[in-house]
Write a structure and sequence with these properties.
- This protein is an alpha+beta fold.
- Helices cover 52% and strands 18% of the residues.
- It contains five helices and four strands, in the order ββααββααα.
- The chain has helices at 27-30, 45-71, 109-123, 131-166, 171-184; strands at residues 2-4, 7-14, 76-86, 92-102.
- Strand 3 (76-86) and strand 4 (92-102) form a beta hairpin.
- It starts with a strand and ends with a helix.
- Mean pLDDT is 75; it is low at 1-7, 16-40 and 163-185.
């Protein structure tokens, strides 16, 4: 988690190891032409397979990050950024990515509840959420729970203040309710 001018920010990152092609560790880049034909020829079958896997991975990664961006409208702090791998064909393919979002609480518990719901929806938007996505969703759930507790405490204080006034209670109970309002102003 990093801090920005907009408050706390998290990034949805997508690069589960299970989704990486066998060459994702850089073996395609590290191999010095092994398995390739000469410069005048096309790619070998092994290289064509690697390119096919990288193309599929690129589509999955881009769709994953775009799902976060679509569901996170209004809380996205920066668009998708990708990490790339160069395939045996010389093309760059996205093999990982992230989208930055603002995860700071709202100014009021009600605003925080709404924002937490949007954060959670954005985190869980892709068909296959990553571990980081699940952590962000859990943090949003915790943020919402804390906001609900604040609302419950505030409504309890307001009830006490109204009861005190109804029974001719001390001015302190009215001041307490006023202070409670000022906290959220």
């Amino acid at each position: 988690m990093s801090v920005s001018a907009l408050g706390s920010a998290n990034a949805f990152a997508y690069s589960p190891l299970s989704a990486r092609p066998a060459s994702a560790a850089g073996t395609a880049e590290a191999s010095s032409g092994a398995g390739r034909g000469t410069a005048g020829e096309g790619l070998s079958e092994a290289d064509l397979k690697i390119v096919s896997e990288l193309k599929a991975r690129d589509r999955v990664v881009r769709a994953h990050e775009m799902a976060h961006m679509a569901a996170g409208a209004g809380i996205v702090t920066r668009g998708a950024s990708f990490s790339y791998q160069t395939g045996p064909d010389g093309q760059r393919y996205a093999v990982g990515g992230e989208v930055g979002i603002n995860t700071s609480p709202g100014r009021t518990p009600e605003e925080t509840l709404t924002k937490a719901d949007r954060i959670r929806a954005a985190a869980l938007a892709p068909a296959d959420p990553s571990g980081q996505d699940l952590r962000v969703a859990a943090e949003a759930t915790q943020m919402a729970a804390e906001a609900r507790q604040e609302l419950a405490a505030a409504s309890g204080s307001a009830e006490e203040g109204r009861v005190g006034v109804a029974y001719g209670g001390a001015a302190a109970s009215g001041a307490s309710a006023e202070r409670q309002v000022d906290v959220w102003a």
